[in-house]
Amino acid sequence: MADKRTYVERRPQGDYAVRRANSERASAVLPTQAKAIERARELSPGTSPHVERVRNTTGGSPDKWRKP
Question: pLDDT of 44-64, one tens digit each?
Answer without folding.
Answer: 888 889 888 766 666 666 656
